[in-house]
Amino acid sequence: MNLFRLLQARAAAGKPVRVALIGAGKFGSMFLAQVPHTPGLEVAVIVDIDRDRAREACRTVGWEPERIAATAFTDDGVRAIAGDAIDVVVEATGNPAAGIRHARAAIAAGKHIVMVNVEADVLAGPLLADEAREAGVV
After folding, report:
1. What is the DSSP pairing of strand 17-22 with strand 41-47?
2. Measured between alpha carbons, how far is 89 from 69 in angstroms, rounded to an integer?
3. Domain 18-135, what fold?
4. Rounded distance, CA 35 to CA 4, Å?
5. Nearest to 84 by CA among 45, 46, 49
6. Disulfide engineering: 96 pairs with which of 37, 49, 54, 119, CB 3.0-4.6 Å?
């Protein structure tokens, strides 16, 4: 399985993997820098307690104004996860309580989650993995 080829196929089909990034800090910015160079991947929503800082992170990593304008920005991660606008959640807040809350919301909504939040993973990783497996998500 080559993930790049799978993403290219999704791009060609007009069905990119739609991501909610939660946390536009250091890791979040590194992730955002790769998005314009990854066909088949779309950040539909960015969640951060400071939406202006999140927009500035996008500008800093080189996002075009059109891409920023096409992206939703919010400070409510649970609400962003609940909608149909995303397929995958990237949790990068670094806050263990928020990370666990977001992971559980993603699992309950049937969304896959990429847990970058080491602090949450240390506290509840095996429990979250079990819950995800039972719900049929990764």
Report:
1. parallel
2. 20
3. Rossmann fold (3.40.50)
4. 12
5. 45
6. 119
